[in-house]
Design goal:
Shape: globular
Oligomer: single chain
Number of domains: 1
Number of helices: 0
Helix content: under 10%
Bound molecules: zinc ion
Distance between the termini: 12 Å
Number of strands: 9
Structural class: mainly beta
Strand order of the largest sheet: 3-8-7-6-5
Largest sheet: 5 strands, antiparallel
Radius of gyration: 11 Å
Length: about 80
């Protein structure tokens, strides 16, 4: 399980079950297990500090590469 964090203020944003290796380019909504203080605004997920973290694409969020960091481990499929 990964914890997605804001790269600006380091706030925890959500927990995500990443399957397989590679970068986190998108987050499928079905695999987000917990949300913290992240807000939805104009089709984007926004950190409380104002940083735009990801864009809502329907079934998944397209991640803004410079806007977040993550901790934790990727699950091996
Ligand atoms: Zn932030």
């Amino acid at each position: 399980m990964l914890t997605i964090k804001c790269s600006g203020c380091k706030a925890k944003l959500w927990k995500y079950k990443k399957v397989g290796p590679g970068k986190v380019l998108r987050c499928h909504k079905a695999r987000i297990s917990k949300r913290f203080d992240v807000q939805e605004r104009d089709g984007m997920l926004v950190c409380p500090c104002g940083r735009e973290i990801a864009t809502d694409m329907g079934r998944f969020y397209k991640m803004h590469a410079d806007a977040f960091t993550h901790t934790g481990t990727k699950d091996t499929a």
